[in-house]
Design a protein that fits this description.
Blueprint (H helix, E strand, L loop, with lengths): L5 H11 L22 H7 L3 H32 L1 H9 L4 H39 L13 H18 L1 H9 L2 H6 L19 H9 L3 H26 L3 H8 L4 E5 L17 H8 L4 E9 L3 E6 L1 H8 L5 H9 L9 E10 L1 H4 L3 E5 L11 E5 L1 E2 L5 E2 L10 E13 L6 E3 L9 E19 L12 E6 H8 L4 E8 L4 H15 L3 E5 H44 L1 H9 L4 H41 L10 H26 L3 H9 L1
Parallel strand pairs: 4-12, 6-11
Antiparallel strand pairs: 1-13, 1-14, 2-4, 2-13, 3-4, 3-9, 5-11, 6-12, 7-8, 9-10, 9-11
Helix pairs in contact: 3-6, 3-7, 3-10, 3-18, 5-6, 5-7, 9-20, 10-18, 10-20, 10-21, 11-18, 18-21, 19-22, 20-21
């Protein structure tokens, strides 16, 4: 019921039933794999310490952000009512009773806020989850209403509220009536201020004021910077999705047209799946085709001679040692004592040949019609790295292929010949009785893009040009037709093929860059939506924390401001000081966000590149530069707006209010 540790769960299920997925040579081997849609689960299983530390830091900061906003709300409440709590102490109210009073306020607010939050969270989750799930093939969207989810969320929220109101409760409980009258932020600190010899200015005073409550300053700056960090990480993550990489593995031409069975897993190519010339003519008659080429598929038997060592290394993962020995014993050998194994061939026209990825050698020789040149097909992994052990042939090697037109089948024990058709109920072996052998020179080592391939493997593959292929195999079955359209013609061709394969001739199907591009953009939009939503929420909380921090600082220093103005500080100087305080918050947040983005980006890049083969890390600070003026504006306007409400009361009235 959970994707966490999904791979271990599958292994446990296999073990419980006597199977395993580690050793292919054992009889109880079962091949398994995890859908890459469960990337989060895979990342959790293979988390490295650096990535784990980075995620833990981000999660801890999110918790601190939630804590701080609730804490600031209660801090503002206590600060505004500090004289009231002082008066309660004078009439005999104990500190425990004052704490209980604040807790009851917190519980009352929680009884109202938590249910609203649960409903809104469920609604938002119900909207976001289907948007994410619909982009993961084979995963069914289900919005759970399990009571445990709501209960645990409510308990966590309640715990956060009680934790957040604890410190303001202690402040209200400890304050005496005299301290309540003279209370200002940082006034309870017992550290003596250092006497400075420098010139006092609004700038220096603002810098000193931030040190009054270092903890609040640090967490407020961090909560603001977290939004910038998340936005930067989201932009880096989404911007790192490389469409060229994605398309290169999925499709190498604008369109590929073939029998519908070609695109189905498990269907092997045969003559009945051949693409008729009339269908290709239907496409080209629409106009707009810039260039194209056919890929011919093999429908006859072809054998190659390989060494016993190569055959063992290439197939050891599929057979036990006993099965391997039995298989080799029954295989036919050529004049050079090589094992005759099945080979798989492609016949490609020039356009298709140009789409091959060349590891070594020169493909120009394959463009010679009827030339005796061949390309050996090597494999790449999901990340584009060549697998040098995926084929035995090298450039310049001579490869002899045996084109078999007739086999005879015989008993492996008695040698009795059954004829040209295999028996239904008896064990048999086969040997070629009519065949033609042709020797080719390996001109290049190549990789065939998946969109031009068979879609299955199990034999060594070679590529010939179309003329040589048709002459030597004595077959002309077209497996697929790949083509590019002229500029601006992709949309019209997409519309035609969609209608043609769905309504006119549903036996055939196609894939295109347009469909893969839409799939890619949909996948990228999913992460952009999730990252953007998280960044917005955290950013909103950070801004509220900043607003609360400024509001708390100004409200607790009303008397101090009045005293400063009474001894000659002008309102303009006071505003400049408050603006500098806000700018220090904003600049500090941007600076920390920039440092965190520069550190977290390279640390997370290897993990992301391992999880997503089409991801390429690119450093970007664009979100930081975009948010910088917004934060500076925020840092300057919020203090002015808050102070404006305080400045409505005259200096004398503020002094009297404080002393009263």
């Amino acid at each position: 019921d959970s994707s966490l540790h999904i791979e271990q769960d599958v292994q446990t299920i296999l073990a419980n039933h006597g199977y395993q997925d580690q050793n292919r040579q054992e009889d109880n081997y079962v091949n398994t794999g995890v859908n890459w849609g469960y990337t989060g689960a895979k990342m959790a299983e293979n988390m490295d310490p650096a990535t784990l530390a980075a995620l833990a830091a981000v999660l801890l900061l999110i918790v601190f952000t939630g804590y701080l906003i609730i804490y600031n709300v209660f801090q503002i409440s206590v600060t505004n009512d500090i004289r009231f709590y002082g008066l309660l102490k004078t009439i005999g109210t104990t500190g425990r009773q004052i704490k209980a009073l604040l807790r009851q306020q917190a519980l009352l607010l929680s009884c109202i806020g938590i249910p609203i939050g649960l409903v809104l969270g469920w609604m938002v989750g119900g909207l976001l989850a289907p948007m994410v799930i619909q982009r993961l093939d084979g995963v069914v969207s289900t919005v759970s209403v399990h009571p445990l989810i709501f209960v645990s969320s409510a308990l966590f929220a309640l715990f956060t509220v009680l934790l957040s109101c604890a410190k303001p409760g202690r402040l209200a409980a400890k304050v005496s009536p005299i301290e309540a009258v003279r209370y200002t932020e940082g006034s309870q600190s017992k550290k003596k201020a250092k006497r400075g010899s420098g010139r006092v200015s609004p700038f220096s005073m603002a810098r000193a004021n931030l040190g009054r409550s270092k903890g609040k300053t640090v967490v407020t700056v961090l909560s603001l910077s977290l939004a910038v960090v998340l936005t930067t990480i989201t932009a880096t993550f989404v911007g790192g999705f490389d469409m060229d990489k994605y398309l290169s593995k999925s499709i190498c031409t604008d369109f590929v047209l073939a029998d519908a069975g070609h695109f189905q897993v498990g269907d092997t190519f045969h003559a009945g799946m051949a693409l008729p010339q009339e269908v290709i003519d239907q496409v080209t008659s629409q106009g707009g085709v810039a260039e194209g080429g056919k890929v011919y598929g093999m429908t006859t038997a072809v054998q190659e001679g390989v060494t016993e060592d190569w055959f063992r290394s290439a197939n050891q993962q599929w057979y036990t040692e006993e099965q391997m020995e039995s298989l080799i014993t029954g295989m036919e050998r050529d004049a050079g004592n090589h094992l005759l194994d099945r080979a798989q061939l492609y016949g490609m026209e020039g356009f298709a040949l140009d789409q091959l990825d060349v590891m070594e050698g020169d493909l120009s020789k394959l463009h010679e019609p009827g030339g005796r040149y061949i390309a050996a097909v090597y494999n790449k992994d999901d990340y584009g790295k060549w697998r040098p052990d995926s084929h035995w042939a090298k450039v310049g090697d001579q490869v002899t292929l045996r084109y078999v037109s007739e086999f005879e089948y015989y008993s492996p024990t008695t040698g009795e010949v059954f004829g040209s058709e295999p028996p239904e109920k008896e064990a048999y072996l086969s040997r070629a009785v009519e065949y033609q052998e042709v020797t080719y020179e390996v001109a290049a080592l190549v990789a065939v893009p998946s969109c031009l391939g068979y879609g299955y493997y199990g034999a060594d593959e070679f590529v010939l040009n179309d003329v040589t292929f048709c002459q030597d195999t004595q077959s002309d079955s077209v497996m697929l037709y790949a083509f590019n359209t002229q500029e601006g013609g992709a949309t019209a061709m997409e519309d035609f093929l969609a209608d043609y394969t769905e309504n006119q001739n549903p036996q055939y199907d196609y894939v295109s860059k347009v469909t893969y591009q839409a799939e890619f953009e949909s996948f990228r939009a999913m992460f952009l939506m999730l990252g953007g939503a998280l960044s917005f929420i955290v950013g909103l909380v950070g801004v509220l924390n900043f607003f609360n921090a400024i509001l708390t600082g100004i409200l607790t220093r009303k008397r101090e401001f009045a005293v400063l103005q009474s001894i000659g500080m002008t309102g303009r100087q006071l505003k400049i000081m408050l603006v500098w305080e806000g700018l220090f918050y904003a600049l500090g947040s941007i600076l920390i966000a920039l440092v965190l983005a520069l550190v977290l980006g390279p640390l997370s890049a290897p993990t992301l590149e391992n999880l997503f083969w089409f991801f390429t890390y690119h450093l970007t600070v664009t979100p930081v530069l975009i948010l910088l003026p917004i934060f500076l504006l925020l840092g300057g306007l919020v203090p002015l707006a808050v102070y404006r409400s305080v400045a409505r009361v005259s200096v004398v009235e503020r002094l009297r209010e404080a002393e009263g």
